[in-house]
């Protein structure tokens, strides 16, 4: 479903490559957590999967379509069905929860309709269903700026859900949340993942969360894939390789 073939990314003026000759593939049903120290290349990697970052060399193929040669407009079409959530949510604070969730439909609509804020009853129903799925329907008319971090991330998840995604990406979606809220968000993501039979890929710093929820863990170090396997294969030795000596202090 998702194939990365010898993918490298070099940012302009950067001395070193952020991703180095990375090859791997992901299929439906896999819940993948991506580990690695700060700067290891996790965000760059995840942005390659939906074409937000084009590789300097190599190829990314999603559902048999190579993203590498696509123009921005064609990439946008691919991204319509790839939900993404972020550490800082990327919501519009002054708009309501409902209005934010409806922005998830923008990729499939005519731009003037987005400008006018005109939504069909089908789109509104979809947004209500997404809000129910994240248990926020009673907050539909509340402004996002008045929500807690955990609630904001649930709005982010609802916004991604209205896209009818087949891939769900998370770039450190719980990094700003307390441990118990982080677990709740992961439980919700796993539940949605199973219900919708997605492929889910999430960058996370919390190793315990990755071990608890992932069906597969990959780890990056200096842009290289240094581990790819089942959570139970993540030994102390591997952990030391990923995080260096003294990683236990980060727990
Ligand atoms: N826009 C950019 N321009 C130049 N270099 C960049 C850019 N974005 C990231 N980098 C560099 O690429 C490398 C990988 O960065 P990336 O953000 O992918 O790492 P990360 O593992 O997600 O880090 P973190 O856990 O801190 O978010 C780093 O050395 C970073 O400084």
UniProtKB/TrEMBL annotation:
Residues 2-247 form the ABC transporter domain. Keywords: ATP-binding, Cell membrane, Membrane, Nucleotide-binding, Phosphonate transport, Translocase, Transport. It comes from the Bacteria. GO terms for molecular function: ATP binding. It holds the Pfam family ABC_tran. NCBIfam families: ABC_phnC. This is Phosphonate transport system ATP-binding protein. It comes from Evansella vedderi.
């Amino acid at each position: 479903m998702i194939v990365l073939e010898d993918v490298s990314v070099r940012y302009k003026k950067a001395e070193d490559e952020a991703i180095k000759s990375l090859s791997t593939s992901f299929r439906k049903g896999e819940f993948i957590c991506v580990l690695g120290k700060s700067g290891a290349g996790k965000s760059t990697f995840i942005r390659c999967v939906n074409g937000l970052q084009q590789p300097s060399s190599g190829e990314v193929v999603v559902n048999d379509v190579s993203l590498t040669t696509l123009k921005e407009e064609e990439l946008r079409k691919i991204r319509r069905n790839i939900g993404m959530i972020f550490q800082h949510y990327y919501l519009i604070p002054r708009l309501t929860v409902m209005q934010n969730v409806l922005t998830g439909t923008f990729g499939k609509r005519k731009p003037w309709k987005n400008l006018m804020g005109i939504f069909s009853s089908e789109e509104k129903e979809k947004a209500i269903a997404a809000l129910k799925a994240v248990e926020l329907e009673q907050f539909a008319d509340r402004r996002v700026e008045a929500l807690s971090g955990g609630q904001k991330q649930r709005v982010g998840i609802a916004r991604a859900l209205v896209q009818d995604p087949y891939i769900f990406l998370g770039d450190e979606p719980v990094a700003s949340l307390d441990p118990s809220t982080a677990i709740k968000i992961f439980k919700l993501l796993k539940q949605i993942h199973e219900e919708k039979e997605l492929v889910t890929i999430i960058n996370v710093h919390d190793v315990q969360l990755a071990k608890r929820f992932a069906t597969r863990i990959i780890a990056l170090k200096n842009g290289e894939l240094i581990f790819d396997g089942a959570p139970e294969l993540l030994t102390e030795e591997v952990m030391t390789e990923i995080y260096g000596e003294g990683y236990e202090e980060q727990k």
